[in-house]
Protein: palmitoyl-protein hydrolase
Organism: Saxophila tyrrhenica
Amino acid sequence: MHLLNLPPLLSLLALTSALPRPTPAPTPLPLIIWHGLGDRYDADGLHSTGDLAKKVHPGTYVYYIRTDDDGNTDRSNTFFGNLTTQLDDVCEALKLDAKLLDPSDPDGGIRVDALGFSQGGQFLRGLLERCDGLSMRSLVTFGSQHNGIAEFQTCGRFDFVCKGATALVKGNAWTEYVQNKVVPAQYYRPLNATTGMPKEEYLEGSNFLADVNNERVNKSEGYKRKIASLERFVMAVFEEDVTVVPRESGWFAEVNATSGEVTPLRERQMYKEDWLGLRELDEKGGLFFETAPGKHMELSDEVLRSAFKTYFGAEGEASSGGLLDGTIAGGRLNNDQQMLMQDDHVFGCGADEAQAWWDSLTWLERRQFEWEAVWKPWLRGELAPLRVYDKDHKKVDLL
Ligand SMILES: *[C@@H]1O[C@H](CO)[C@@H](O)[C@H](O)[C@H]1NC(C)=O
Ligand SMILES: *[C@@H]1O[C@H](CO)[C@@H](O)[C@H](O)[C@H]1NC(C)=O
Ligand SMILES: *[C@@H]1O[C@H](CO)[C@@H](O)[C@H](O)[C@H]1NC(C)=O
Ligand SMILES: *[C@@H]1O[C@H](CO)[C@@H](O)[C@H](O)[C@H]1NC(C)=O
């Protein structure tokens, strides 16, 4: 990775030494970064992304959002937990970091730029809506699920906890048990095939998305004001994303699951009636629909650098326009990013952390999990025979 970065860095140094000394640049806004599913805040790959942001705008303070100071717990919290609690905790933690405070705000508010990868993108948006005293200039999300997911991804071959969790969600997505415990279930958003509207169970039972998207009858004026207060909301979708179903969720579009027909955000009721302040933001030129080349989270330094340059930096300094023809220029992954991204797909939890999570449960919790994940849906006829794998990766027919 360092070898790969060396040539551009050297040419940059050569260039800057030939230029007249610039006046000291104004301080860039702090940057908060929220990682994706299966990732952890202290991962090397994530930090190399933060380092790149510092290279593009020297002096940037980078805060890596975590739900726990222990990296392993932070990672397992990307699969399991209640997002209401997680967002509240993150909000409180941000307020304890003096480096995030806006020096010009007598009320001690926080003012930042924000970068979200995959599910971290919609969590940052929810955080902005819910966290009093937090304000954002640019919110940039890559491959996020702003309009939810219509399907859960298949699990890795050895992930029997992952398979259990998926089965659990399929049979019982709207129970309090699942909504309180399984993170992706809280942004699961299936449509009624006849009406094309979200299912009633979603509107009633969703612990996260139906609320932060202001889809319920009673809408939060506060959420709307927060979104409209952004200067820029940048939604980047990966051209060849097959992990997020549908990938246009990253642009807040609605997709007919049968025909694949996409209704862009600007044609949706939520935009026309401006439930969430997105139209107001768009009308002042602050909404950007971007495309990044490659599959889910196949990010290159070039793409990131281009986004950082355009949307981050000191207040009033970053360019106000979008990127040329809506496309962030492509490039190749560096090794660190490959390491970072390989686990980041919906429910494709690696065998090790799945096993570690299972090992951390008490006997009673395991039995409860089996009951909820396997036996209950099976009794209701909702579950096809489930193949699972034991600790030694030997296949076991459970049912
Ligand atoms: C999630 O946590 C919040 C806050 O503690 C709680 O009010 C809510 O009922 C929980 N959600 C579920 C589905 O249990
Ligand atoms: C879809 O909506 C129609 C019309 O409201 C309703 O009759 C039907 O039961 C719904 N289907 C599902 C699967 O919820
Ligand atoms: C979705 O597409 C199918 C197939 O073209 C069509 O029959 C159905 O009416 C569409 N649903 C909605 C809500 O538009
Ligand atoms: C909406 O809010 C009003 C006033 O707070 C309340 O009376 C009403 O029951 C709410 N409606 C729903 C569907 O939650």
The first strand starts at residue 31 and ends at 34. Residues 26-350+385-396 form a domain with the Rossmann fold fold (CATH 3.40.50.1820). The beta strands are 31-34, 62-64, 110-117, 134-142, 232-238, 254-255, 262-263, 287-292, 387-389, 395-397. Residues 195 and 256 are 10 Å apart (CA to CA).
